[in-house]
Structures are given as C-alpha cells and as structure tokens.
Design brief:
36% of the residues lie in helices and 29% in strands. The protein is α/β, with parallel strands linked by helices and 221 residues long.
Amino acid sequence: MIELREVHKRYRTAHGPGPWVLSGVNLAIPRTARVGLVGRNGAGKSTLLRLIAGVDQPTRGHVHRRCRVSWPMGFGGGIQGSLTGRQNARFVLRLHGMVDDMAARLRAIDDFAELGAAFDEPVSTYSSGMRSRLQFALSLAFDFDVYISDEVTATGDAAFQKKAANAFKALTDRAGLVMVSHGESTLKRFCQHGIWLHEGKALWFDSIDEALRQYKGSVLV
C-alpha cells in the first residue's frame, strides 16, 4: 500500500515560493494496482510520480510506502555522469545488496540496454535516450512491488520500444504500477485504474477509461 496524506507540493522560484502544483492530495494505492495518471500538461503528473517514488519530498503532508517502490523508470536522476554505464550499474547493484550474482545481472543490464561499447564509456557522453535505456535496464534487475514509469515505453527506436513494452508487460503481470503516458492506448494496455490530476487535486477512478473520459471532458470545457 502507498498512502498520501494531505500532500501539498510547490517549488521555489527566483521570486520566492511558486504556485501549488499539488494541494491536499489524499490517496491510497493498493500494492497490486495498475494505475495511470492523467491530466493536462503542468497538472503535476511527474511531480506526483517523484513523490510516490521518494525522489522528491512534499512541501507539506506525508507519503507512506508499505511496499518496495521503484525509482521512476526512464528517469535519469541518480546516475553519475563521470562514471561509465557499467560502473553506475555496479554501484546501484551493490547499494541494493545484489553482490552474489553481480556478473550475471551486469550482463543482463548490458544486453537489455543495447549500449554496446558505450556501456564502458562515461554516462556524460550518452544521449538522453541512452541514459533512459540504462535506467530502464537497471530497473529490470530488481524485484519491486510497485514500478513507477514516466513515458518509459517511448524510449529508443521502434524496435527497442517494442522490446521495452514486452518487458514492461511482464513486470506488470506480477507487480503494481503507477505510470504517466501521453498515449491513451498505452494507458489502456497497462492500467486498470486511473488518477485524474486537476487543479492541484487527485481524483481516483476504478476504471482508467472513466479517468480518461473525465480528463478529456475537462479539456473540451
């Protein structure tokens, strides 16, 4: 279970505190739920993902994670640009206690990311797509209860996107999911439930179809 209690979030600007991105969000997300976040650009979808994953903190309120939650798949944070892809992977595996089968996991990450010789080059030389592929492959090396995804299936060329989507489907068959995607078909493929972010609030819908209807109706107003 992931619980958000009276969560507010805003960012500081050069002129002081900015407007509230999220205001009084209360949610209880079951561990096995597959949930899509929908809303206008700037509604706070990626912000909410980062709060759920723990890579950002609320300005007010609390986020409680009673299960193992991944970092946002495809998110480049936590990767050190001065280290190679292999060195970054080794560090993350060691950090999470994955030492006994380190070599096998490194091979799996290398094979899936399809970085070739660049796996042993500094990440600072990578394109944004290469960084995303590394981050996605790293996420596959762990068994999380809930996976967090921000447009991860849009990474790379068409062949890699298909490969990523198939791997992603295998993950969601055995784990929970909270995801953002601008593709309606992607949300319908992977998600059962929906959260509509609107004017700082987060509204839960048991059906992703109903969440999408509410969102599209608000856009037409």
